[in-house]
Amino acid sequence: MKKSIATMSRRGFMKAAGIACGYAVLGVNLTKEAVAAAMEFVGIRQAAVYKADATIYKFRKSQDNPAIMSLYAKDGFLHEGPCGEKSHHLLHTHYVDRSASLKALKAKGVELKF
């Protein structure tokens, strides 16, 4: 099945455009070496993450962690359960709209650097 440019995703287009620019600026051989080095790095990093996950970390799921299990146990601090009122209040964040304050500062001439 042939895929036309019209059905190409933005990410696919950006990848193709980047590779084409690399070929245009650096030439075919240097671009191939750069892509190969990047892919080698990705492979090494991926292998390191999987190795750490298999050897270093005892509990791959938070629900299997004994500290979490004791926290939610019947005599634990959050004994109501994961969806209880206390856990919801302590573990969830709330959005506060501060755009009006920001507009007021900008209206006064205050320059904000982010």
From TrEMBL:
GO terms for cellular component: periplasmic space. Residues 36-99 form the Iron hydrogenase small subunit domain. Keywords: Iron, Iron-sulfur, Metal-binding. Gene3D superfamilies: Iron hydrogenase, small subunit (4.10.260.20). Its main location: periplasm. Coiled coil: none annotated. InterPro entries: Fe_hydrogenase_HydB, Fe_hydrogenase_ssu, Fe_hydrogenase_ssu_sf, TAT_signal, TAT_signal_bac_arc. Heterodimer of a large and a small subunit. This is Ferredoxin hydrogenase small subunit. It comes from Desulfobaculum bizertense DSM 18034.
